From TrEMBL:
InterPro entries: Spore_GerAB (IPR004761). The keyword Transport applies. Belongs to the amino acid-polyamine-organocation (APC) superfamily. Spore germination protein (SGP) (TC 2.A.3.9) family. Keywords: Germination, Membrane, Transmembrane, Transmembrane helix, Transport. This is Spore germination protein KB. It is found in: Membrane. One of its GO terms (biological process) is spore germination. It is a multi-pass membrane protein. GO terms for cellular component: membrane. It comes from Garciella nitratireducens DSM 15102.
Amino acid sequence: MNNIKIDLKQIFILIVLFELGSAIVIGLAREAKQDAWFAVLLAMLGGMLLFMVYGHLFKRYPAVTLTNYLQVILGKVLGKIIAFCYCSYFIYIAARVLRDFGELLLSSTLVETPMIIVNFFMILVIAYALYLGIEVLARTGEVCFFIIVGLGLLFVILAFVAKLPKIENLQPFLENGISTIIKKTFITTLTFPFGEMIVFTMILPLVDKPSFVIKVSQKAIMTSGILLILVTMLNISVQGVYIIENATFPLLKTVGKIKIGEVIQRLDGIAIFTLIIGVFFKISIFLYAAITGISDIFTIKNTRKIIFFISIITLILSLIMAKNYSQHMKIGLKRIPIFIHVPFQVIIPFILMGITYLKQRNILRK
């Protein structure tokens, strides 16, 4: 790992692509209705504060990954157990994103295709990218980033040219008060996608300028948050609250409404292409973290040996984790945030930070 390096621009791009990932596909904070964009804003601010905890741990152990310093802070045995749990967590969330991808394509274009076929080809491409290495993935991200941003801006411009957005769909603001938004959507939106930045504790040590990495990462979180806010506002203003609440993939519906004369229409395919890119990077980063962590725990020098094995596990999990899409979404939005995301994204990192603080004070006293 010491020979692998990525620069600040690449880590910025990887974070933005990761954060957009499946969040831009599924839509965020739907229970907040017309105030969903404000709920995303609050979650983004919360995510930036939460990342300060990850940043503190990174500054304390800048040269090693989460799975390494868990063993330093908690001891070899407990540290390895928790580290393995984190690797399992990364694989499981990657499988959930892969399931999102499969559901997206099956509902939009490949209606008659079995999900196993769709997910298999995606995981095959991801496995190949992981085989080539994180540096190649980072360089690929530089190209894909401009494609996504460029097409995203194009969709927004075309939506306004087609006179689709209606400001009245975003009103009234805070109709039920800010407390309702926090109770209904804050934890869900904070943990997905902003809290998922915990995965970058496995990548930050690779950045060539560690002194600037926290600042750049915060800027990336803010950039992706602003983009998600704009997408959320666009979806609501074009479709209205009721359709957004019941739409499987809100952005796809919004883009599908764009029609300018007989020339510009049926942009769904381009939208799906951009969404696939985000999903590809999100799964790749989760699996890279899992593979790196497992290699650390079991002292596997050649990480390429386990790429195929981890990829197959991810594929199988994506197929068996739910009977249908509604069950998949119910588990993902109701159970996963509280019982899985919060412990791994919030509770354990805070405990680690507390232990490192106490250890530091004891050293200073001596």
